[in-house]
């Protein structure tokens, strides 16, 4: 190889190696990044999946390694979805049906920085708020208020959408409410296959399906 050809090859390799890096660091400097979740908060979410409505009481509690979704179906039952950072989840009712199932996932609860690396899409108006919008691994679109940096809205790739109605930073649910009912432990044998199903889905999106993201996505 002539020295000219060698030099060209080196230049080409140099460009190949550096171009993606410099363009991504350029992008990172320019674009807003999602605000990490507060370590503890309470949020009321209005959910809509093609006209099926639910209210979710979300209690996110990172320091205690737990996350709670209390799901009210419209004029229907309340489903408690209690998640621990060790991967165990309990799904139960507190009514006379005394139903409970549990699942064991390979991932813990969502980390406060779970939105890191999301792709910035620009600004849009949603629910009457001007928001920055990100795409997280083609799994959901996340809308955050430009002014207050609070989450306003997110939409899953399935079309299921969450509207954030309240966002109380620092609110913590009392310990007693995190106790799954005794029949969750009595009927261990009845643990269904949900766990396996969720694990598979979960693994494919890096564990994003936990929290308000998993149930009936
Ligand atoms: C729920 O979403 C559907 C579209 O999937 C829409 O037609 C309907 O108006 C929404 N309902 C509410 C209460 O937002
Ligand atoms: C995870 O933690 C919860 C709450 O302490 C507990 O009930 C559950 O048994 C634990 N799961 C495992 C696999 O240790």
UniProtKB/TrEMBL annotation:
InterPro entries: At4g14100-like
Leader sequence segment: 1-23
Keyword Signal attached: yes
Record keywords: Signal
Name this protein carries in UniProt: Uncharacterized protein
Natural source organism: Rubus argutus
Source species taxonomy: Eukaryota, Viridiplantae, Streptophyta, Embryophyta, Tracheophyta
